[in-house]
Amino acid sequence: QVQLVESGGGLVQPGGSLLLSCVASVREIAAMGWFRQAPGNRRELVASITYYGRTDYADFAKGRFTISRDNAKTTAFLQMNNLKPEDTAVYYCNADYMYTGGSRSIWGQGTRVTVSS
Length: 117
Description:
By secondary structure, this protein is mainly beta. It contains no helices and 11 strands. Strands 2, 4, 5, 6, 9, 10 and 11 form a 7-stranded mixed beta sheet that branches. A 4-stranded antiparallel beta sheet has the order 1-3-8-7, with no helix packed on it. A hairpin with a 6-residue loop joins strand 4 and strand 5 (about 45-50). The termini are far apart.
């Protein structure tokens, strides 16, 4: 079964840090990314990373968040520093699953991040 499993969310005070992890159940993964969705808002891109390590960040993430992948390319991480209350959201992992003849986008179940004092 092709799936992504996220972990690492939780409650943190403003200015704190969290490390999110996303593990894919298959190796045929190209790009991976993190999205977030706050109540009443659209899901938005936080950061993405290609198979070869090229990264891209939303403006709000630049300088505070870092996306990375392990050597096996099946796990993505999102290091979040200097968290703000407006970072409160459910964070979703996304990946491009490659199979013979095509590809499809897969999503994790989400991990909740709450930034509050």
